Amino acid sequence: MHNVLGQHHDLLFCTCADRICRRAGKGWARIRLEKSPAVLTVNRIPEADSWRKQTCRMERERERTAEDTQLVLQLTNPDQREGALLELSKKREAFTDLAPILWHSYGTISALLQEMVAIYPLLSPPTLTPHASNRVCNALALLQCVASHPETRALFLKAHIPLYLYPFLNTVSKNRPFEYLRLTSLGVIGALVKMDDAEVINFLLQTEIIPLCLRIMETGSELSKTVATFIVQKILLDEHGLEYICQTAERFYAVSTVLGNMVAVLVESPSVRLLKHVVRCYLRLSDNLRAREALRQCLPDALRNNTFTNVLKDDVSVKRWLTSLLFNLTESKEWSPRRADAGKRPLRWKP
Description:
This protein is mostly helical and 351 residues long.
């Protein structure tokens, strides 16, 4: 009997002669004695199966982590880097610890920066090939992981790595490799601002990110325009960002003019995804006293009438934003101490 059931187990002999039960790890295994004493049927109880599955899953996770870590190490080898970039960019969503491993592993971030700097000569004159664009975009996808991870985001900013992206955002070629490069670069900046971190906004305001985004908002593809407008929107939603843009008439009108041009294009080619960010930018601008006064004069008529009614019929949030915007602009133009912004009289912009 011990040879059949194995040793080191507590045997429980049931009153029924045809049943033997034994304790096995965290679960129970029930062994039924059939007509022939030599034939045993094992019925596993679900708890034991669950425990075994969890153990196997943990083992597979360890194996995958070891494989992914090996790919990170290959990034520092020029001969293996391209393949490692491709594989890691595919796995970045499932590899939860990828950002800290990339940042803290020796030479890895330097290798990613080398990939970016290597294509600078291809930007002007525009000779970037699809293969080169795909390769550097795989590197940018890994940097996006670093930018969005709470453990590495501050380190990413402190190293001023976003500045390496600006030559890509400054390109104007509409060829597919360049458009893909701009979009992926915008994705890295978008990952930064998505976290609603004041430190990120303060860093970006010290750079040329707003003019770069404004140009893409006018000339890029719809997807690039959407991401660039999202970045401007997140800057505006920050108090310091709103104050910065509304500090001078030049900055305000640079933003409002581009938004107005986008509305004109959206009248001809509607896009709810893009219009949503445009309306949100206008609504946030209306929170500033000086900007509100200016918007009463320069807000596009298409946002005042029913031009986008059919486009927005299924989007409750955007309709609510647009209603709030129009309400802000139709309030009494006279300053009143009962207003929420009492104490801040409308001032003229600095010359």
